[in-house]
Amino acid sequence: MTADAPPPAPMSPARRLRNIVGGSAGNLVEWFDWYAYAAFTLYFAPVFFPSENPTAQLLSAAAVFAVGFLMRPIGAWIMGVYADRKGRKAGLTLSVTLMCTGSLIIGLTPGYATIGLAAPALLLFARLLQGLSVGGEYGSSATYLSEMAEPHRRGFWSSFQYVTLISGQLIALLLLIVLQNTLSETALAGWGWRIPFFVGAALAVIVFWLRRRLDETHKAEDVKDKPRSSAVQLFVKHPKEAFMVLGLTAGGTLAFYTYTTYLQKFLVNTTGFPKNTATEISAAALFIFMLLQPAVGALSDRIGRRPVMVAFGVLGLIFTVPIMTLLSRVESPLAAFGLALAGLVIVSGYTAINAVVKAELFPAHIRALGVALPYAIANAVFGGTAEYVALWFKDTGMESVFFWYVTGMIGVSLITFIRMRDTRHNSLITHT
Question: How much is the pLDDT for 249?
Fold first, then answer.
């Protein structure tokens, strides 16, 4: 059996599907917990960060969101090495445990009015735990789904990583819509915003049990004659691939967070829509975006990964500024939905296949770390700071500069796409 071989028992289609669904369900809960923070920021920001200026409150909450991203490289490093050495299932189980703990802390922490500076400090600590969790989750889940899939359907099945990622965000938004329509504004701002964090913690416990039942794709004995996974090994032995992951992630993750987590606040703070209308627009666009992922992944199985990524780069370079400019001036919710969806359709060229592309670049003994660490670094620098940078430019009266910033980073990713090999034809994931 090779290092990438699936479990020794015959892998029936039903069993393979069960593993993919099980791994994806855990990913969904991880990202529900992560995005609940972004979805409910408009309501809990005043609880933790008292201020007369709503933009200042959002800036403070966005800064904590960004700090959570700064922990992701550390989580990617620690748990990427752990998943390479101990197995993908072990890494997936550990990550969901940390996420559950972080959600419980946020849900239980009293506000600034009750415990003063301890409130934002505990919020920060919880986000640090969640940052560690998500940093490890991405590499383990992307690697697991890519290794579990059949070679000729790897793009299709690995796209479910973003299907579940988007589902987690979408469920967080749908829960917000339900609460907005069942609770008063006062109740939602006072205590209702805590509900999603308790829901996420409870779901994480269920996922912990599910992940203990997954088949393993990678065991320690499979790579006993290979170098041990480490950051030094990654950047010394695989520097080209590591920097490719950095480059292709930079523009993709910035565009993704612009059209997802930041869009809701942009529609309220810049366009002027009511909070519930902005939430509904975001949720509707995200739902269709989610459905697009398998189709784009399947397309990459037919024509290759590189043409799909290049299409994202070219279209993003041309249309990002026009879309964001029109969104800032639009008055119709339907028109806002159409523009948001247009941006997300373009971003699908990155989101649907970025996981499999990264996994196909690395050999098994360092794959989880190779996928996770460079991705997490790029996410911390560009994805995690997207909201903060956007709000900073708005606060200084230069909001349109942010649109050009996103465009420029997409251009950086486009250069990476053009220069890299098509991993569909040169994959390092092998099976016997």
Answer: 94
Q: What b/e readout covers 88-104, taking b as 16+ CB neighbours within 10 angstroms?
A: bbbbbbbbbbbbbbbbb
**Token code pair at residue 377:** 């670094």
What is the structure's pLDDT at 366? 87
Residue 432 has pLDDT above 60, yes or no: no
Contact between residue 80 and residue 229 where contact means Cβ atoms under 8 Å apart: yes
Residue that has been written with the tokens 């069960």 in this structure: 18
The rounded distance, in Å, linking the Cα atoms of 171 and 25 is 13
Q: What predicted TM-score, i.e. pTM, was given to this entire model?
A: 0.81
Mean of the pLDDT values across residues 197-217? 82
- Are the CB atoms for 429 and 359 separated by under 8 Å? yes
Cβ distance 8 to 1 under 8 Å?
A: yes
Q: Where are the alpha helices (DSSP H) in 149-274?
A: 154-158, 160-182, 185-190, 195-211, 231-237, 239-259, 261-266
Condensed to tens digits (0 to 9), the pLDDT of residues 40-90 reads 877 888 888 776 667 767 777 777 777 777 788 888 888 888 888 877 777
As a whole number of angstroms, the distance between CA 63 and CA 70 comes to 11
Convert the pLDDT of each residue in 224-283 to its tens digit: 557 777 888 888 889 999 999 999 999 999 999 999 888 988 999 898 899 889 988 988
pLDDT per residue as tens digits for the range 354-402:
989 998 999 888 888 888 889 988 988 898 789 889 989 998 889 999 9
Torsion of CA 385, 386, 389, 391, to 10 degrees: -120
**Share above pLDDT 70 across residues of the chain, in percent, rounded to a whole number:** 93
Number of separate helices (H) and strands (E) present in the chain: 21, 0
Torsion sign (Cα): 385, 372, 299, 24: negative
Closest by CA to 19, choosing from 105, 106, 107, 144, is 144
Distance, CA of 157 to CA of 11 (rounded, Å):
15
Tell which residue, 380, 375, 34, has the closest CA to residue 203: 34
The Cα–Cα gap between 240 and 4 comes to: 22
**What number is the average pLDDT over the span 305-332?**
95
Distance from C-alpha of 94 to C-alpha of 432, rounded to nearest angstrom: 29
User: Cβ distance 290 to 345 under 8 Å?
Assistant: no
Burial (CB < 10 A; 0-12, 13-18, 19+), residue 155, is buried
Is residue 407 a contact partner of residue 321, using CB atoms and an 8 Å limit? yes
The C-alpha atoms of residue 11 and residue 148 are separated, in whole angstroms, by 10
